Amino acid sequence: MFENVISKRETKTIYRYGERAIKVFEQNHSKADILNEALNQARVEETGLNIPKLLEVSIIDGKWAISTEFIEGKTLKQLMKEDESKFDQYLELFVDLQMQVHSKKSPLLNKLKDKMNSKISQADLDATTRYELHSRLEGMPKHDKVCHGDFRPGNIIITPDNKAYILDWSHATQGNASADVARTYLLFCLLYDDKIAEKYLNLFCKKSDTARQYIQKWLPIVAASQSVKGNPSEREFLLSWTDVVEFQ
């Protein structure tokens, strides 16, 4: 097995092997999810977005693996931490990249609305709350924009020549971009703090000319759907957002 570990998570380990990044999944990981992730990568690649190219899906030592181009550089998360004086500049770049993702279409991606309906049904919520969330989701405008699903500074690599690459398309869907923004807002609340999350949201709304209230309507829906796979502390935080009926 390869020795150069880039990152290790509960269900997968990512290695560098020459000019490749190889994501090796644990044996109990869903084969369908792995193949869907590779398919997402291939479909998003066809939109022209700057992402690592998919090279191969294989089995290594009895485990499924996805190989992509290795991108040399630092994550936006690292850069934000290393030079806090440039945080606002990096946040501008972050929002510009997210808007670039939302400008694309990929008709064969799974639909965000279908995925969220399924997740809300699985959420640890009473039947009345689930009904209200399903109803709200049904009433939201139906779009078909590419949505990343986990857009965070740690999923963006900046190369030494300042080229940005967007990583990890396992959660990609097509749907309403404001749901994707609501997901990132909640991630900022979890990873940073409310103040930075607010700064992100205000900047996105200003740059994209999107009403803040529109994104806020998505927050309970997105929080409920994300609570299904969150760790216990994240789940508690996310479920607290599902009780909010309307925002002021």
Tell me what you see in this structure:
This protein is α+β, with helices and mostly antiparallel strands. 48% of the residues lie in helices and 18% in strands. It has helices at residues 31-45, 76-82, 87-102, 112-122, 127-139, 177-191, 194-208, 212-227, 232-241; strands spanning 5-8, 12-17, 20-25, 54-60, 63-69, 74-75, 145-147, 156-158, 164-166, 173-175. The strands form 3 sheets. It has a 5-stranded antiparallel β-sheet, covered by helices on one side. α3 packs across α7, α6 packs across α8 (212-227) and α8 crosses α9. The longest helix is centred in the middle third of the chain and has 16 residues, at 87-102. The chain is globular.
Query: How many beta-strand runs?
Result: 10
* Rg for CA atoms: 18 Å
Query: Strand count, sense and closure of the main sheet?
Result: 5 strands, antiparallel
What is the global morphology? globular
Strand content is 15-25%
**Topology as H/E string?**
EEEHEEEHHHHEEEEHHHH
